[in-house]
Amino acid sequence: MSICYDDSAKSGAIVPYDKIKATEGYIRHHANFMFLDFLARSTKDFKEAAQARAEIVIARRKMSFMEKHMNFEAAIAQRAVEKQIKEWQQDRKIA
Fold first, then answer.
1. Fewer CB in 10 Å around end: N or C, the chain?
2. Counted domains in the chain
3. Which of 75, 92, 76, 93 shows the shortest CA–CA distance to 37?
4. Is residue 2 one of the residues assigned to a domain?
């Protein structure tokens, strides 16, 4: 069972290093991180929580890679992350 990251197979797409959209990748992996963290904290299913925690490690690793990439734009990523956090906080108030 995988939630966000399939651990059974590698991606078939190979993008040249200089063409990687690092900022977009960081934002996407941060969104995955937030969802997985929420799931790990809120689920009552032990296996699902364990899988979410395992995938959090993957999300963090991918975010770290993107942060170090030459195409990464920290200011843009920071604004998007702040927006994600704000949206999650608003969603939690509604629920």
1. C
2. 1
3. 92
4. no
Q: Residue type at 85?
A: I
- CA-CA distances (angstroms) from residue 32 to 19, 29, 55, 74, 83? 22, 5, 9, 18, 14
pTM over 0.90, yes/no: no
In a domain, 4, yes or no: no
Please calculate the CA angle 40-33-1 and round it to the nearest 5 degrees: 55
Residue range of the domain that includes 39: 21-94
71 occurs within a structural domain = yes
In a domain, 14, yes or no: no
Q: What is the mean pLDDT of each run of 10 residues along the chain (95 residues)?
A: 79 84 98 96 96 96 97 98 92 65
Q: How far is CA 50 from CA 4, 17, 41, in A?
A: 13, 32, 10
